[in-house]
Write a structure and sequence with these properties.
Layout lengths: L1 H12 L1 H8 L3 E6 L2 E5 L3 H21 L6 E5 L22 H6 L27 H11 L9 E5 L5 H15 L5 E5 H13 L3 H8 L4 E5 L8 H16 L3 E6 L11 H7 L3 E5 L4 H18 L9 H8 L4 H18 L5 H7 L1 H8 L4 H12 L3 H5 L5 H17 L4 H7 L5 H15 L3 H15 L1
Parallel strand pairs: 2-3, 4-7, 4-8, 5-6, 6-7
Antiparallel strand pairs: 1-2
Helix pairs in contact: 1-2, 1-3, 5-6, 7-8, 11-12, 11-13, 16-18, 18-20, 19-20
The structure holds adenosine-5'-diphosphate and magnesium ion.
Length: 453
């Protein structure tokens, strides 16, 4: 019966969420109308109760069971398992030693993998669920369904983490596959080295012999002509052989300047997914997961309630900064031997908190938008009505509304003393256009990211 309920749940909450949160649950018992589950960690227990308690209850009832309540707990009497030991046993993360073999035994010139970057340690939320699902699909190692997988997003949103996770997973599940992960910079370095040592044939042969090629931060090869050329040929050769390619970049293929058009269009051929900036829920999830990992190794650690919520609320830049804050907090707390309270956090993270408080200004928005559309900054506030100038101006108005806390009259003042109704009209116009004009929507996405990072 639970199997049937699971099928329904997969449909209602989505496969990704299901796999991440519900599949690891153990059904323990049904008594007195209470269905009990065990979750592998305290965090999962809280998260699932909070976010999936309702749907689970609903589906159980739909299946005809008389259920009052769903109870989720961590296994009794067992010390909290380290998060590495968390989900499904067949998916144990690859030990670092094994990952390193990718590049050593098989003579692949890849970059070492970070043993911490696994699917198990990747927290899934709305902003990254598509990217995560796509990465999971590639990691299954089955027939290639989209090629390449192109992941893009701002700094510190988990692109490298996901790529390493794919490599780890393939190594544990499909040891026979030759997986090569490296950054675009390393690709260039290898290429130049091969040219210098007159070993370009070896280089080509090597890169054409892999089953899965992953190139991180591909924007790096923009403007590097011969590297681009070689990359293009490698790419085509692998695609022709039906080999999987995974690429990451800090922006969408079409937005990478100084990248040959034929490469851009090749990169767009497969599945292009972006990692959106984190939202509060995801940040809190990440903080809780990391705290659990840390607490499992440092039993004395006590974090007062509200501290993680405070951080998730205040540090909105990127996950790396969030992690950095947490690491410092742990180090500080262990030094002074104190519980981590809100006061301690505020004191010890003052600089990070101040930096992430920095709000985007309207002037900055105008400058970036003018730069992006190649118009004069003075035209942003000037009177010209030409479409090629008026449209960027409206984009700047739109972003001012969305990225600052200024009121419409205040925005109007900064746009050369325009009336608030003009501003409102501009914002509405952009809202309306974005539903049909993909290029515009992408421009705005890019500009937002540029200004939020
Ligand atoms: P990018 O390559 O996109 O710049 P990284 O993959 O290097 O970002 O991520 C930066 C840091 O944030 C890493 O330590 C990574 O583990 C962590 N991180 C990012 N997203 C997540 C997530 N969803 N869950 C857990 N950790 C994350
Ligand atoms: Mg990266």
């Amino acid at each position: 019966l639970w199997g049937q309920v699971c099928n329904e749940l997969q449909r209602t909450v989505g496969r990704t969420n299901f796999n991440t949160w519900i599949a690891p649950l153990q059904l323990i018992e049904l008594s007195d109308g209470i269905v009990s589950f065990e979750a592998p960690t305290k965090f999962m227990c809280d998260w699932v109760s909070r976010n999936y308690g309702e749907p689970i209850l609903r589906e159980l009832r739909n299946s005809g069971m008389a259920v009052e309540r769903v109870a989720i707990r961590v296994p009794e009497g067992r010390p909290m398992p380290a998060p590495e030991a968390r989900p499904m046993p067949e998916k144990a993360p690859a030990p670092a030693r094994k990952a390193a073999r990718v590049s050593e035994d098989q003579d692949l010139p890849g970059a070492p993998l970070d043993a911490r970057f696994t699917f198990d340690s990747f927290v899934v939320g709305k902003p990254n669920e598509l990217a995560h699902a796509a990465a999971r699909r590639v990691a299954e190692g089955g027939p290639v369904t989209f090629n390449p997988l192109f992941l893009y997003g701002g700094v510190g949103l988990g692109k490298t983490h996901l790529m390493h996770a794919i490599a780890h997973e393939l190594q544990t599940q499909h040891g026979e596959l030759r997986v090569l992960y490296l950054s675009a910079e390393q690709f260039m370095y290898r290429f130049v080295q091969a040219l210098r040592d007159r070993q370009i044939m070896d280089f080509k042969e090597l890169f054409r012999s892999v089953d899965v090629l992953m190139v991180d931060d591909v924007q790096f090869i923009a403007g590097k002509d011969s590297t681009q050329e070689e990359f293009f040929h490698t790419f085509n050769a692998l695609v022709d052989q039906g080999k999987q390619i995974v690429i990451s970049a800090d922006r969408a293929p079409g937005e990478i300047k100084d990248l040959e058009d034929r490469i851009k269009s090749r990169l767009q051929c497969g599945l292009v997914v972006d990692l959106h900036p984190t939202d509060y829920e995801l940040r809190l999830g990440i903080l809780q997961t990391k705290t659990e990992i840390h607490a499992a190794r440092n039993p004395g650690l006590v974090v007062a309630s509200g501290v993680l919520e405070f951080l998730a609320h205040r540090i909105t830049t990127n996950v790396r900064v969030l992690e950095g804050a947490l690491t410092r907090l742990f180090a500080f707390a262990s030094l002074v031997g104190r519980e981590i309270t809100l006061d301690l956090a505020q004191e010890c993270l003052a600089d990070i908190l101040r930096a992430s408080d920095r709000r985007v200004t309207i002037e900055e928005i105008q400058r970036k938008v003018a730069e992006h559309y190649n118009v004069r900054l003075s035209d942003m506030i000037g009177p010209k009505r030409l479409r090629t100038i008026a449209r960027p101006r409206q984009v700047a108005m739109y972003l001012s509304k969305h990225l600052t806390t200024r009121s419409l009259p205040e925005i109007g003042r900064r746009f050369g003393g325009r009336d608030h109704t003009t501003i409102m009209h501009g914002i509405r116009k952009i809202d309306e256009l974005m539903t049909t004009d993909r290029q515009l929507a992408e421009d705005i996405g890019l500009l937002k990211r540029l200004m939020e990072s």
